[in-house]
Write a structure and sequence with these properties.
The chain is α/β, with parallel strands linked by helices and about 250 residues long. It contains seven helices and ten strands. Helix 2 (about 95-105) crosses helix 3. Keywords: ATP-binding, Nucleotide-binding, Transport.
């Protein structure tokens, strides 16, 4: 029996930034309905990785396959992706409603389909009180919710979230986790980048730990894994730090 192909496949991705390796020979796969936590300290290469997956950065080498096709050769496959960067990219002079309508049109939605998609995401993310507000006057938490709404509007096959809980209060974080679980239950693959271990164990079913651009750990997450994963995470960070210190002293 032929196994189903992964929705996303990264093969030996490399990317240098400012003359230094930000991501080094990264290989990963992600199946439909899976929630992958991309865990690492600040500067581990998480945002660079997500930017390449979303099509905003081109890798120096390696390949990205999306739904079995070469994403680098077929950039139009970006229509399958919903992306929320660490800071939601919004136009301050547009209202919340105008943002949703614009993003919908960019993804090919028109007429009744556009209205239906906007109405559904407004209700789902409780944006009705904000519809006529300019994005420039929204709080950071409200901006994140709007960015998430824009990422979800076209029902993507792959949802890419970079530190999505930033600036959210505990109630909003719980709501975000519910949305992520609902998306996965509907078959959407989700990548959640974070430096917080609790976010991974709360919502993800798999974790990949990046450190200094390289993959150091890739395994399933279970309800009892927090202490083990915490030890693994800190061992990777501390051991890599000790190795770097030794290399610097030798130099």
């Amino acid at each position: 029996m032929t196994l189903p192909q992964p929705l996303l496949k990264l093969d030996q991705l490399r990317r240098h930034r400012a003359g230094r390796p930000a991501v080094e020979r990264l290989s990963l796969t992600l199946d439909k309905g899976q929630i992958l936590g991309l865990l690492g300290v600040n500067g581990a290469g998480k945002s660079t990785t997500l930017s390449m997956i979303a099509g905003a950065l081109r890798p120096d080498s390696g390949s990205i396959q999306l739904n079995g096709e070469d994403f680098l050769e077929h950039p139009e496959l970006a229509r399958l992706i919903g992306w929320l960067p660490e800071r939601a990219p919004l136009w301050p002079e547009l209202t919340v409603h105008e943002h949703l309508a614009t993003h919908g049109r960019l993804h090919g939605l028109r007429g009744a389909a556009l209205k239906q998609a906007c109405d559904a995401i407004v209700q789902r993310l409780e944006l009705t009180p904000l519809l006529l507000r300019l994005a420039g006057v929204l709080s950071q938490g409200q901006r994140q919710r709007l960015g998430l709404a824009c990422a979800l509007l076209h029902r993507p096959a792959l949802l890419v979230l970079d530190e999505p809980a930033n600036a959210l209060d505990p109630v909003q974080v719980a709501s975000l986790r519910n949305v992520i679980r609902e998306e996965a239950a509907a078959g959407t693959a989700v990548i959640l980048s974070t430096h917080l271990l609790a976010e991974v164990t709360a919502v993800c079913d798999r974790v990949a730990i990046l450190h200094e651009g390289s993959l150091h750990h890739d395994a399933a997450v279970t309800d009892t894994d927090h202490k083990t994963l915490e030890r693994t995470f800190f061992d990777i960070a501390m051991n890599s730090g000790a190795m770097n210190e030794g290399r610097n002293q030798a130099a």
